[in-house]
Amino acid sequence: MQNFKVELDSDGILVCAFDTVGKTMNTFTKAALDDLMAIAERAKTDGAVKGVVITSAKSNGFCAGADLEEMLGGAWEAEGIDKSDPEAELKGAFAAAFEMNRVYRALETCGKPVAAAINGLALGGGTELVLACHYRVLSDGPKVQMGLPEVKIGLFPGGGGSQRLPRLIGAQAALIAMSEGKNFKPKEALAAGIVHEVVADDQVVEAAKAWIKTKGDPVALWDKKEFKIPGGGPYHPAGAQVFMMGNALLRKQSYGNYPAVINLMHAVYEGLQLPIDSALKVETRYFAKTLMTPQAKAMIRTLFFSMQAVGKGSGRPVGVPKTEFSQVAVLGAGMMGAGIAYVTAMSGIKVVLIDRDQAAADKGKSHCEDLLKKAVSRGKMTQDKAQGVLDLIAATPDYGLIKGSDLVVEAVFENTELKAGVTKLAEAELADTAVFGSNTSTIPISLLAKASVRPENYIGIHFFSPVDKMMLVEIIMGEKTSDATLAKAIDYVLKIKKTPIVVNDERFFFANRCFIPFTAEGLHMWAEGIAPAIIDNVGRATGMPRGPLEMMDDVALDLLVKITSETAKAEGANYIPIPGEAEVAKMVADGRLGRKNGKGFYDYPEAGGNKALWAGTKDMFPVTMSEADPAQAEELKKRLLYIQAVTAARCFEEGVITDPREADVGSILGWGFAPWSGGIISLIDSIGTATFVAELDRMTGLYGDRFAPPQLLRDMAAKGETFYGRFGKVDRKAA
Ligand code: NAI
Do strands 407-410 and 472-477 pair parallel, antiparallel, or not at all (unpaired)? Predict the structure, then answer.
């Protein structure tokens, strides 16, 4: 037995400490499941075994669930699955889920009491394992959590979780937890009734043994004759109501975009009407059905695999030694600069935060202090740690203090001459090897690099607002930027625990370039006479976090007007005005700046509460469509999604972005692009390039050239290529 350290103690308790071979975290590989089956067999047949304790031998957690890499990587294909079958991978995953249920059930029915001593993080299949144990003791350690987060990658709990959790805590609580993918901290898990005891970390095994020795019931709750589902099952009037309301609510919240949530509902509803053994089969059937959906395939690829790869710096040139950062200088202590100083100090790096005068620099530092106070008051950080972070930040107007910095991040006003000036001041203090990164959102990096004496060390490091929350950072290559500089910039982004994507130097880079057309399409619709409520409703129904008009309010209308006028200036005679842009400019002139001053497309009550559409919108464009039938709504949704996707395709054609994984991850982390799709490029791949081109041609005819497919898409469609097929798995090599 290689994946569990097994020891029979003097009381006859078989203590099994999980330790997956070759993995940093415990996961259920095929071999680990075989070992767990052997434990269940031994417990059943060995008279010397009085009870079983399952715990973890790894210091970083209990179990992260099924081994997805192995599950989708073909390890299960051997089980009689034909490798040439295009669905082989997913069938392998099905086989894994089936086996997981069989093994967990064998443990649950081994005839001896089984207690889980959960001494760390238990997620997905890890939580499902302990649900199949008769007793659960959880550590109160600071990093300990439990939960079933499968929906976040387009799946639902397929290792018995969808059947055991509702039987344990009731259908309503379980459905909420599973459809949100909620994680429970120790106290929450105890309060919810998911575990029996919470004890100090070094006491979990003893507490589990104590239960076996004193009470030690070897029969699961749901295998007892007198068992009743808490809150009533689906056949019970109260239970039936939970399902009716739950179904309506889940469909409304997810707009039917997430088949996993709908299938979860079916599995729970049908499963609760059956004995547990049949219920587990129902679960496996719906689980397999879910796995076969394009949404699950795309979400697993992007939100699990690509997120990990990009999050580890897949765009980093290989062969450049890793950079450690002892000091970073941030120029400009405004909204962005202060946020950048905060996230940098949070990762233990000394920060010199520079502004025009001491008061402006101090203001930036006090913003960091506010963020730290909030973290302390929410129990996320100790006072000492917060003080330590704050002490790392030196606020000053003195450019001399830049000396010794490995990196400068510039975030002064968006002005080319001003940025050139501070570049010169900073470079006078910097070593030849130091990197200069600009956080500009609109000025070309190659243009800014002209002010630098070392343009090969000059790069774009583009954060998103608010910096402390947004995970994405775009790294922008200028014409002369070297690979060594790129590697250093990526090392910095990884150090501050953000996700870097590498983009080339075109107007608006990648994220804003794709996102702006979403808002512009909303303006087109408004000018066509479509009611704003319809525009924003269909916007949300696409899976975007907000509709285009509400999104414009959030970004700030004055900023959008500024961007539009600068785009017009830059494009000169080629600029095609967006219908509605003059009206938005008028709104700004009349003091409607968006959410930030409580007045935009919507009025935001000062006292809080729901926003209401500003009545003036209908004077600007009289409403001609105040209701949309399903076909019309579908077409509007298509417009909002496809205008972004066609822009992303153009970015590939122009080489603005080169790796589909970075485009997908960037779209979800950067502007909340519909997660169900697996990202902006996965959307095109799952529609199919040929179908997508045909649709774009049709839409170009109806709405204009902004939908016109680029030549790249036509070529791909003719050859039947996908983006992942054509551009997949690029590794950037150092020159
Ligand atoms: P801001 O106006 O809040 O801050 C700019 C700061 O630069 C001010 O504190 C100002 O006093 C300081 N400053 C001006 N001249 C200076 C000098 N010579 N030396 C040192 N500091 C000087 O602006 P914000 O929003 O923080 O933007 C900064 C940069 O970040 C701009 O380039 C902007 O385009 C970019 N950006 C902004 C985003 C946003 O959502 N606001 C998102 C991504 C990038």
Answer: unpaired
Torsion of CA 536, 540, 545, 549, to 10 degrees: -10
Minimum-distance ligand 1 atom for the alpha carbon of 338: 26
Q: Does 336 contact ligand 1 (Cβ within 6 A)?
A: yes
> What is the rounded distance in angstroms from the CA atom of residue 164 to the CA atom of residue 280?
9
Regarding the beta carbon of 636 and ligand 1, being less than 6 Å apart is answered no
Question: What gap in Å lies between CA 681 and CA 500, rounded to an integer?
Answer: 17
How far CA 314 is from CA of 311, 319, 336, 458, 731, in Å, comes to 7, 13, 26, 21, 7
Instruction: Tell me the range of 79-83, 92-96, 513-517 where mean pLDDT is highest.
Output: 513-517
Separation of alpha carbons 380 and 374, rounded Å:
9
Is 423 a pocket residue for ligand 1 (Cβ < 6 Å)? Answer: no
> What is the pTM assigned to this prediction?
0.90
518 C-alpha to ligand 1 centroid (Å): 25
Per-residue model confidence as pLDDT tens digits over 118-140: 999 999 999 999 999 999 999 99
Angle between helices 383-391 and 335-346 (to 10 degrees): 120
CATH number for domain 327-508, candidates 3.30.70.260, 3.40.50.720, 3.30.1490.270, 3.40.720.10: 3.40.50.720
Closest ligand 1 atom to residue 336 Cα is: 26
Mutation choice for ligand 1 from 412, 439, 441, 468, CB with most ligand atoms inside 8 A: 412
Neighbours of 633 (CB within 10 A): 15
For residues 591 and 693, give the distance between their C-alpha atoms in angstroms, rounded to a whole number.
42
| Mutational test site, ligand 1, from 330, 335, 410, max ligand atoms within 8 Å of CB | 335
Q: Environment class of residue 21 by beta-carbon count within 10 Å: exposed (0-12), middle (13-18) or buried (19+)?
A: exposed
**CATH 3.40.50.720 occupies which residues in the chain?**
327-508
Residue 62: per-residue pLDDT = 98
Q: What type of residue is 217?
A: D
User: Residues in the chain, how many?
Assistant: 735
Which residue's alpha carbon is nearest to atom 29 within ligand 1?
411
Q: With contact defined as beta carbons under 8 Å apart, do 183 and 251 qualify?
A: no
Task: Determine which helix (DSSP H) or strand (DSSP E) holds 475, and give its type and residue range.
Answer: strand 472-477
CATH class of 4-297: alpha beta
* pLDDT, mean over the chain: 93
389-393: average pLDDT: 98
In the chain, CATH 3.90.226.10 sits at 4-297
Measured from the Cα of 414, ligand 1's closest atom is 32
Question: Could you tell me the strand order of the sheet in which 146-147 lies?
Answer: 122-123, 146-147, 183-184
**Has 236 been annotated as catalytic?**
no
The CA 415 to ligand 1 mean position distance, Å, reads 9
Ligand 1 center to 460 CA (angstroms): 14
Angstrom CA distances, 27 to 330, 331, 377, 480, stand at 41, 44, 35, 44
CA 189 vs CA 137, 177, 403, 734: distances in Å: 10, 11, 50, 48
Report residue 448 CA to chain centroid gap. Answer: 32
